[in-house]
Amino acid sequence: MTSAAELAERATSEILADLGRTQRGVVVDSPPGAGKSTLVVRAAAALADAGEKIMVIAQTNEQVDDLTDRLADACPGLMIGRLSGSDYIPAERVARHDTVTVSTKAADLAGCVAVLGTAHKWAMTSADAARPWAVVDEAYQMRSDLLLRVAHLFDRALLVGDPGQLDPFSTIETERWTGLTWDPMQSAVAVLLRHNPDIPVHALPVSWRLPAMAAPVVSEAFYPFTGFAAATGERERRIEFTTRPFGMNVLDQTLETAARSGWALHELPARHSMRTDAEVAAACAALAVRFLQRGAVAHSERGAASVGGSRIAVGTAHRDQAQAVRSALRQAGVTGVTVDTANSLQGREFDVTIAWHPLSGRRDATAFHLESGRLCVLTSRHRHACVVVARAGIPELLDAHPSTDPVYLNVPVKFPDGWEANQALMAHLSDYKVRAL
Amino acid sequence: MKGTEARLARIRGRAVPRNHNARTIAALASNPGCARRAILDAAGVDKQRIAAFTGFPAPFGQSRFALARGNAFEAQLKAEGAAQLLALLREQLNLPIPKAHYDDLTEVGGNTSPELRHARTKSLLLGIARNTGDNGTMFDHPLLRLEVGGRYAYLEPDLIAFRVEGKFSVVEVKSFPVIDGQADGEKVAAAAIQSAVYVLALRDLLGDPGAVHHETILVCPENFSSRPVAAKLDVRKQLAVLCRQLSRLARIDDLLGLLPPGLTFDLDPDDAGVPRREPADLAGAIRTVGARYAPECLNTCEMCFFCRDEARDDTARLGKSTREELGGIEHIAAVLGFARGTGAPDPALAEAAVTLRAAARLRADVLGEAV
Amino acid sequence: MSEGVEILERRLDRLRVAVREAVIAGERDRASALRRELRQAEQEWEQALAQAAESLPRAGEPGVSGSQAGGPRAAVGGGDSPLLPLREQVYEALALLAVPAAPRLIATVHEAFFATTFPGSKLTSLKRDEERSFRTAPYARPYYICAALTADLLAPARGLLAVSTWPMECRVIGSLSPRVDFLTAAINVAAAVERLTQPVPAARRLLWRFAASIPGAAEDANRIDPRRVIHAAEAEREVHEPGDREARGAGARRAREQLDEVQQLFGAPLRTAATQAGRTQGRRA
Amino acid sequence: MSTLRALARVIAAERQFAQPICTVRHVHVSDRPLVVIPLALSGEACAPLAAMVGDDPREPGLLLVPEPRDRDQRFAFAAELAGVAGPYIDSYAHDEPDDAPQFLLPNPAAVAFIRLLGRSTRFRRTEGAYAVPAAVPLLGRWLTFYTERAEVPPSSLMLVLTDVLAGHWATGQSPMEDQNLSAIIGWIDPPPGMTGAQAALAAEDPVRCPPAGPATDPTFDNEVLEARMLAVRTARSTGDGRALARATARMAEALRTQLEPTWTLMWRAVDLLRALPEGGHVPGRWAADCAAFGSYLDYLRGGGPPQAKRDGAVSAARRLANLERAQERLAVERAYDDSLIMAEYRMTGEAFAGTVVAAEPDRIDATGKRRVLRPRVTVETSDMVLARPGAVLTSPARPGQEAKVIEVLDDAPSQVVLELKGGMGRSLTPEPGSVPAVGERVCYATFSDRFQPTAAFPPPEETPWTHGGPPPQYVPRDEDATEVWS
User: Fold this and answer.
1) Nearest-CA distance from B183 to chain A in Å?
2) Contact B329/B335 with Cβ under 8 angstroms?
3) Is C61 contained in some domain?
4) ipTM of this predicted structure
5) pLDDT for the residue A375
């Protein structure tokens, strides 16, 4: 049997080999935690080695800083440029590298072999900053119109991203561009492939992040066609608690279930609620607090480490829900736990995540709340355990959901369907349900 | 199932059961949470009739101009052995030249009985599916059959199934236009789910899901002309939706269990067929089956005016997004009670109460008058 | 305008409203009763109008800001009454096509090449009349307008008319026959267009209808060459002909063996479903 | 939909009358708008049947297509519409116009119809095969220009009255039912003796209240129109001119009964809107509309080709960017103009209103190189405050001034300490009134009406390979000009 590492290595070398052959580019689909950043850094290093000047395009300053830091570590001698906006203050992890030059002007960085910047910054750069190769990170979250603004800067591109996460969106509702191959609202990958169907598409086969309990579930629900496996084995990841509770309240039951199986559904009584359901917000906060109180320790292939606040995240669908959880945490005197919307949690990794189910307490499901990418982000950020918090009644809500979405000609059907993905995940979670009455 | 069938027959009463067709099967997905609709459909009740009888006739009608246009477009495509459709399939879907067979299944030797036509369709298509030779391309008006809630529904499709490379495809002819590559999303959605009904029925007939493409072909007039244009529709999602709804119909017993035992929607006709039942009495019987009204029903369900009237004091009639903003509170009076701070305290709704109170305060603050 | 007419018009308006209300209320019986009343009132109105018109001098036309760009059309049907009986006109068209054809195509062909037209709907009763005539006095006429027969059941093929003097092979329809006949018709129409001494727009429109559905026959309705249509149609027909000939030949043999004289012309009644199914399988095997 | 609007709907349902959701009007209403009510023949892609058009409520102009399936008559209709709309547009066609033609349509379906009418006429040619009058393709371009502007959120060049009314009043019915012009006006301004709810219910009877189109009521089609169309056709085929005129007049009469009620409703809607005070940013947005009108006028005079059938990659991206910016800007302007809209943001914590309880108007910050005027004020509010120290806020009353949050005391009511910068004159003492005084009601929002610059896009001829490469240059084609319209 081939080990996970070998599988991943084989996929990477095939990708790197394709880079040498392609006329136009390569697309790499990367499921959660499959080593996307590692691939970006390796590809960048390989291209630099081959004497190419490259640009790296990421979507946020945070992501650019991460990649800059990792590339500088991986290639100690490489001259690296960090292209930035005028109000950018270099992060410590960028400033500590002697090989990294920070500038707002691409011309200042002309001598650097690799230059990294956000897509928005690159879009404001003139054509003389062009480079033969671009590596685009989080390409499924980049909108087609943004790619249009940077595409004149490179001849060939490696686009890397997670197709299971959220699609880019617009505040404008219009059917004006449906069916056009260059519909500006689709993702950068979609537009590229529709115009260049010969571009090879690879998929990374192994998730280093998701534990063995999570990978098959997430793979089946959100990546039905490509699929992936966990890099670690059945019992390699586990959570233990350094304290024992007096008695066993529902929070502890949920924690124990999550620690034991990697999943828990913390189910509150069925009720139609406001979007900022105070009880759900309180439960999310209380679970996070309880993980900290109980002194959770994560055991993994990396050894044992205490699960501190920075290793826990609470994910929500809406900003006001995140607000509500934050204020509940503030009241409990807890800081350091990441609380954010699915959109903001994309690309991030924690030991434990607590997910406020987007359909909790709702009377009707909307396309927004059913979107498979949202649920996928919320349930695939964890290395050890994911606790889903929801009011009872989601299966019934799904059952009653009308299927009346419009269908547009010449628009590729997107899989998985949000309804199916939700159904699949709820079916799985029903085995790990803890009723919080 | 026997007991269920008897129960449904009693609910329907003496009226002739309404048969399902592709349109009504497709409509199963439009409000699956509505028990009233599920019961009425399962029992084959004529919804239009009972809605009108209770004083809430459905707001649907069809213009003869639209009908005529639809019929003329279909006739034009199918004239002379579907010559125009064949040219289209060749041009846009690369149908090879030798594939030009045309079998008319509209009638069997002048007889149009559904059983006979279905038998003929079945023997012809099965014969062809089992035979590897290229001896069938277009099949005009095949008569298919699908089990819906324990009864067979005959599907009278205005379609031609065509077969190439050993696989059947479903062609759906619609008369709404495709203009510069775009068509009305809702109309395409309706066409897609209807095609999916045919795909399902055709798979059922052939006993082999792999024998029918999940891509169907939609043929519409192009731009402002009556020249046809074809588009492929991937109906995998619609197939999943349909299978789900059909399996729900099979579970109709769960719903029946909740209803009063003697329930019937019979109109109690006299010998001349004139109903003797009091409309108010029928309305009362209908109300014993819970509905899930939403304004979207106004586009899809014959009972919509009845249910809207029933929901006049509910937030449901204000639309889904309004109700969502009101925290899902069901009654208009309750919302206003909370907004004015006069509502009975209900811990389950405490949060909604706080929000509504705040909204009322802001509104009063700006308008200078209490809400 | 006379007072009576106006009163009638108001009554018509009221009735129309009442019909619409009944339709909307789902009261089908009341709607049909009202429609009957409406039709009667309309007739009265027509009569009143005719009387009023006779008693009035020709007045200027009332102005409506309406577009009538087309202007009054050349009279269709009403003006030129047919010179020949309907069956002979149908025969003319069928003889030109030389294949079984649907009423609508027959009417179009006649309009294009013989300059008279009749609604296709008139032909529905023609076949019945012909059958009655044949049963009364077989072969009394030089030809009959008869049915085409389906190759499997030897039943009348839906919506097709043929000529009794054609060979049976020509009147039997297998699954490739509609295409083969379409191509044959195209060839014959093209040949007829070629024979025309002066351009007839209706004939060229008809030819374009055929050509547009034949690969390589023509690109454009305005530049269409009958020779090229014939060439393209023959090329495609060659592909289908062997299979078609076989099916038609087998069908024709069975027709001659199994059917009586009337049935050979007007089709066999339907047998039981069982024999029918067996037959179908036999044909396909 | 915000909670405040949802609440307004509930109140409307209870009181049986529509409730305001704005305190000012957010659209421009012209002194002389052109009302257009199109009707279409059912089942066809774009077959005009009739229209009522005009800029004077006392003079409804009826246009009729006696044989809607006839291509020539369709173009004749387009020419007639151009005969009304053309001179109307021309009356505004000055250099750098300070006013512009405004089209009023009843509902979104009417816009969709007008868009298709523009699409089917703008490519036509005035000579050669299928020639049409010059006014027809010109009308097509204007209709296309106007329907494209109708997609731009802040534009008032083409108003859809159901949408505009629904944007200013909440009814006690659903947004879907608000698409019925007669029903929504019934809720807002019912006839004497009726509640809004009753008027809306009455509006659903297609016999008494003909739909505003473009689709006609099926029972009208089947029971009235079909017979009258047939009568016209029969009269035409018999060549009896008098009978034809009479049949045509009767058909026109039938359609007039379908259009006139909507015509009256349209002008009632105009009156309802005019009665509202205009929002502060409306003239600015109208000026932008006039400029857009002027520049399209110049473009036409310069002989530019008709609008493309579909957007190319670059124009789609550019249009999207413009729409997004315009929408964002409109949202802010509406909140700044309208305290009831601002209340929706106060509800979510993105803005708060309160009273100034303390002020240091002369406060000087001397920590930097230069002494600068940095007054501080403390605002007491019972609104939810989400802004945290460091956030920069703006007040609609003083848009040029930044207010940095220094401290938030989260008691009920909350107190927010703000430090002000800008908009106070050049000296170290603030100009009178530039700093809010103790006791003043103030409102601060987390958003301001200052905006990002427009995004740069490549020219279409440099469309990159990722988006299909440069598109072929548009050359007017025969095919477009002679396209079948039947």
Assistant:
1) 7
2) yes
3) no
4) 0.91
5) 97
Q: Do A152 and D464 touch (CB under 8 A)?
A: yes
pLDDT of residue B132: 60
Q: Which chains touch B (3+ CB pairs under 8 A)?
A: A, C, D
C196 plus C140 within the same structural domain: yes
Which of C128, C172, C206, C213 should we substitute to test contact with B (largest number of B Cβ atoms within 10 Å)? C213
B193 touches chain A (CB under 8 A): yes
Is there a contact between B324 and A407 if contact means CB atoms under 8 Å apart?
no
Tens of pLDDT, residues A237-274: 999 999 888 777 999 999 999 999 999 999 999 999 98
One domain for residues C49 and C93: no
Q: Do chains C and A touch (3 or more CB pairs under 8 A)?
A: no
CATH top-level class for B64-240? Answer: alpha beta
Looking at the complex, does the CB of residue D96 fall below 8 Å from at least one CB of chain C?
A: no
- Condensed to tens digits (0 to 9), the pLDDT of residues A374-412 reads 999 999 999 999 999 999 999 999 988 998 889 999 999
Task: Mark yes or no for CB contact B33/A278 under 8 Å.
Answer: no
Q: Quick check: is C173 in a domain?
A: yes
Residue among C20, C53, C76 minimizing CB distance to D237: C76
User: C149 and C16 share a domain?
Assistant: no
Please tell me which residue, D201 or C73, carries the higher pLDDT value.
D201
What pLDDT score does A347 carry? 87
Residue B239: closest CA among chain A residues belongs to which residue?
Answer: A403
The verdict on residue C59 lying in a domain is: no
Whether residue C28 is found in the same domain as residue C78: no
> CATH 3.90.320 residue ranges in chain B?
64-240
Nearest C-alpha in C relative to D222: C20
Residues of B in contact with C120 (CB under 8 A): none
Query: Which B residues in the span 306-345 are in contact with D, Cβ-Cβ below 8 Å?
Result: 315, 317-319, 321-326, 332-333, 335-336, 339
For residue C109, give its domain range. 68-285
Candidates B108, B122, B137, B304, partner chain C, best to mutate (most C CBs within 10 A): B108
User: Same domain for C191 and C272?
Assistant: yes
Does pLDDT of D260 surpass 90? yes
